[in-house]
Amino acid sequence: MTRAPKIAAVYDVDETLLSVKSMVDFLRFYLAETEIPPDSDQARRLAEFQTALGADREPREQLNRRYYRVYTGERADRLAELGRRWFALRRAESGFVNAVVVAGLLRHRLAGHVVVAVSGSFGACLDPLREALAIDHVLCTEPVVDADGIHTGEITRSLIGAGKPAALRELAAAEGLALPLSFGYADHISDVPLLELVGHPVAVHPDEKLAEHADRAGWARMQRALW
């Protein structure tokens, strides 16, 4: 008996499922909840990240690694708890979730498709989203946590740029996903390699470069409607 192909609905998270950049938005919440001595190593790492973010000259993969160094020495369970509080607070605010994209996700689920989220963000931000939307697989950046449950500031992999399509290929091979029959949703030009893996790519409220690419390639486009 021939089994039906497993079709996936693949979603970028920041400014696609959500209207915000989850890492930066969560960091603001973390800083409001955390006392950082001004002469500490953490204050120095935070300043270095904020300077690099503002200058916007570093490769995104390098900036991603710099971000996670801010949490060096922080307990993983505290970040997870802060992540749950951050998500609950922000979810109650108008405009946090992209209503059109989430409605589409629910239709994919009803159709029996496998729902996948792919993001450079991390579990503290994404686990509450996964639970809220019943996402089957979350592919994300993975910070290193030591045997005592403490963040080391390093990461095992960064899901920025080329990391996203590589992770999706691995998942598709492991789960038997039929990517040529699958759907993908993202907002940024850097997501083109991810969208090119699926048969039905959709540019969501795209930046100018992705919009131009989508028009040339004949991809569908979707605008945001927030709730």
TrEMBL record:
Keywords: Hydrolase, Magnesium, Metal-binding. Pfam families: HAD. SUPFAM superfamilies: HAD-like. One of its GO terms (molecular function) is metal ion binding. Belongs to the HAD-like hydrolase superfamily. SerB family. This is HAD-superfamily subfamily IB hydrolase, TIGR01490. NCBIfam families: HAD-SF-IB, HAD-SF-IB-hyp1. The keyword Magnesium applies. It comes from the Bacteria.
